[in-house]
Structure prediction request, 816 residues.
Amino acid sequence: MSEKAYKKIRVVGCSVQNMEKAIEIAVAKTTDGHHGNGWFEVVEMRGAITDGKVTEWQATVDIAAKVD
Amino acid sequence: MSEKAYKKIRVVGCSVQNMEKAIEIAVAKTTDGHHGNGWFEVVEMRGAITDGKVTEWQATVDIAAKVD
Amino acid sequence: MSEKAYKKIRVVGCSVQNMEKAIEIAVAKTTDGHHGNGWFEVVEMRGAITDGKVTEWQATVDIAAKVD
Amino acid sequence: MSEKAYKKIRVVGCSVQNMEKAIEIAVAKTTDGHHGNGWFEVVEMRGAITDGKVTEWQATVDIAAKVD
Amino acid sequence: MSEKAYKKIRVVGCSVQNMEKAIEIAVAKTTDGHHGNGWFEVVEMRGAITDGKVTEWQATVDIAAKVD
Amino acid sequence: MSEKAYKKIRVVGCSVQNMEKAIEIAVAKTTDGHHGNGWFEVVEMRGAITDGKVTEWQATVDIAAKVD
Amino acid sequence: MSEKAYKKIRVVGCSVQNMEKAIEIAVAKTTDGHHGNGWFEVVEMRGAITDGKVTEWQATVDIAAKVD
Amino acid sequence: MSEKAYKKIRVVGCSVQNMEKAIEIAVAKTTDGHHGNGWFEVVEMRGAITDGKVTEWQATVDIAAKVD
Amino acid sequence: MSEKAYKKIRVVGCSVQNMEKAIEIAVAKTTDGHHGNGWFEVVEMRGAITDGKVTEWQATVDIAAKVD
Amino acid sequence: MSEKAYKKIRVVGCSVQNMEKAIEIAVAKTTDGHHGNGWFEVVEMRGAITDGKVTEWQATVDIAAKVD
Amino acid sequence: MSEKAYKKIRVVGCSVQNMEKAIEIAVAKTTDGHHGNGWFEVVEMRGAITDGKVTEWQATVDIAAKVD
Amino acid sequence: MSEKAYKKIRVVGCSVQNMEKAIEIAVAKTTDGHHGNGWFEVVEMRGAITDGKVTEWQATVDIAAKVD
Prediction:
């Protein structure tokens, strides 16, 4: 009952909008039973520069979901 | 005169909107003389996932304020 | 041909709007050949507090551009 | 023959007893071929506080198992 | 409603028994509103050696409690 | 279109030759859809010593591949 | 008897003289029961530059004092 | 008189019982004048897994002893 | 006479051969007075994967050269 | 107006006197527009030993100056 | 029987060839009972630059050997 | 000839004067062949507080000396 376990997987989400959207894409694209409840931890934030402008936001997140 | 000191306290702010709002809540909810001028440093960013969606943004910040 | 090098420079961008804007200012203000294509990595996020409110967002980023 | 590889997965184990039990639960609950021989590395230790008492021990571990 | 904040304080607990007891002492000795619900994070583990034997376990923990 | 995500998995490659070979083994032995294009990041480098000589090179790498 | 706890607070001391003086100011300005015996740990060292000269030394220290 | 020095050595202790026992073994097995008074700092915690069960606890500790 | 200073710049070198070659390219491509004597420090090692094979080695190094 | 940027450069200062002097030399020897107002952050402290005595203090600092 | 301990010592190996050779020199030059079986962990990689070329590879490794 | 190795040992020096003196004591008290030429790296700086005043400066340094 009180014995629980959570598995963490590391995902990089990419968005042209902003960092929050990049995180949300990382969460949305995560499959194999990680769509339920859980939490995320931001590990790294990067992005692409094209012609001197930020053109992509990239967020690496650890996504945790309960192990059944 | 030139001898100053600043105290830092660590606070986790939570918001359903975005990371900047979570940081602003951490700053706003901080009491005991920390409402004046100072600065913050982001220590950690996490969040909650419900039904496969980001439902809360959590920012841990160190908030610094002058010691009188 | 396959031998390339990228130089990274560390820049702190400041904005009254939000963290993404602070990053974009760091990228835009970077000179000496770093205006082309490349990438950035967020190193640190801080900000200023005035009268108990966040009044400036400060993002330290490493900006990478190709060495000709 | 001498070419081996090990895959690491990150798991959070939770126990009401102590940290060692939390680690053992993380190991026991790990599935997909990780039940064999291998090793674990403690990444983080946290826990829950209820009514001013520690009520749950949480250990995040990297669990390594041989890739066939 | 959804706007919450948690304050973290750093405490070193000392015990002659074991690490879990040292953590529990850190939690128990924490005052000013931190006696309610919340969580802890282990930051550091050390101890004293007397006559070649471990004679004290010392755990540094961050203790988080809700800001009202 | 611009919404992409990459999953990272952590693998330890072992080789009797050198560190680059250990990294290549980690990449080659990685399964479940990670055989396509992507990148790796070196996390840790270790090795075995037998009779005072290095007899195995071990490289821990994060291997990233696109999530379909 | 053997159950003790120490609380750590983080303080930034500023001095125009040198780093040791900045640390001593951080210790001296710390209030609420931290004036007794204990220890400090240096967390960060920074300073201000005016007209190309170091004009202020800033030391961030964790100051630990016994919890009664 | 007030001039003292302590030497730190890094030792990995292994036990089939638990982490505290692994630390105590590291302290007990340390030779060359480190058997006296001093302190230890936990650097890393790992362990072995056999048939899906934790079969050994391994604690890496820095052990400090006074230099005569 | 005894007052010296060294400037460090961060460069990413890329090679199809191996990590040492990637470091040598980073050193060779570094301009503006850094071609003299000095030293380098490896900061990060990554690489590209194409069709499941390592196709590029990338080494980030800090290159230090004397300030005249 | 409120859009500002600061560039950081990493410099190692060396002095036979003490650490503060090594930092001041790093600041003084820094060229290309970094002579104005700004700040420094200590990154590393090392030194040389000759015949069992400290003969040089070396401080690595990040020096930040406003980008015009 | 199951109570074992390993001592780690930190050694910097230098080679004009490559990083693996630098590591092997660190292992070979290590004395006082560390010539047996054990393992190493790479802690840092640096090198010397002469006339704009890499002229020495330096690897700092922790070398672990069983305590009898 | 070009094959060299340096051994590092970790020492905590204590002084009532200042940090540089604490470092010099760590270097001076180091025995077994470490009295020759080499270098040190500052790992940690702490100190004791008595009656609200800094009464001891403690510097942990890695001291490197050539292996014959």
